[in-house]
Amino acid sequence: MKRVSAGGRIVRLHVSNISKWLLVVCGVALIAAGYILFAQLKIDILGILLDLFTGYGYWVVFFGVMLENAGLPVPGETILLAAGFASALNMFRLPLVMVVAATGAVIGDNIGYWIGRYYGRAFFERFGRFLFLTPARLERIDTFFAKHGSKTIFVARFITGLRVFAALFAGTSRMAWPTFFLYNVAGAILWAVVIATLGHLFGDSWPLLERWVGRSGAAMLIGVVIVAAVAWRISVHRRSREPETED
Question: CA 102 to CA 247: how far, in whole Å?
């Protein structure tokens, strides 16, 4: 039996983890840069959406929210904010906006869930190494969803970026569908009510409202990334202090 010293293992872990820390830092920087760039584009998004509402009505809300939650790069939350404002202009009925948005969110999330359930495991086992998702990390994701899946599905609804991937990983981890569906519906209803109401009440201050909601979601996402990175680093440090035996 050959015993590897804890010090030697720490050195190897330190070297191998530099790229992972750089990835985390770059990811957070890209999120912040993407938001800042989008904020500087000066596009009349509200005007565009109001024109779409005039031509296509509630379908814009339904498909916008559904496609975002299914994983496509569609600004579903911005569309819902604008729909709430449109209800203040008597273009829409606010309760119906909430129902349509919640329905679209639930359907989109369930698409993501079943894609993950049927295809996610095979995909990540084959290509996960290119995404830094090793089999061990997939197992940790499974364990996380087994313990905290219901809370994650509910809370992720309000976090920019996470709401797109939470359902996919819930399916990949084989989270029980009835539990997923229950918390998904609860989160979707609350999210639709809150965002549509904000648009209805504060739509006259659209630029400020859009920035505030967008920054809140981005800040929550960055916070989640930082907390996850710190927790991961603590876990690595603890494992590095344990002696390892090799044949």
Answer: 56
Where is 138: in which H helix or E strand? helix 135-156
Cα–Cα distance for residue pair 222/228, rounded to 1 Å:
10
Mapped onto helix, strand or coil, the DSSP state of residue 44 is: coil
Question: Are 227 and 28 within 8 A, CB to CB?
Answer: no
Rounded to two decimals, what is the model's pTM? Answer: 0.69
d(CA 221, CA 31): 9
More confident: 95 or 245: 95
- Any idea what the Cα angle at residue 180 is, between residues 179 and 186, rounded to 5°? 95
What are the boundaries of each domain within the chain? 2-246
Q: What are the pLDDT digits (tens) for 30-86? A: 655 555 555 555 456 778 888 999 999 999 999 999 999 998 888 888 899 899 999
Distances (CA, A) of 247 to 1, 2, 4: 5, 6, 10
- Measure the CA–CA gap between 72 and 66, rounded to whole angstroms: 9
Of 162, 233, 235, 234, residue with least CA distance to 18: 233
Q: What is the pLDDT of residues 170-211, one digit of tens each?
A: 988 889 999 999 999 999 999 999 999 988 887 666 655 555
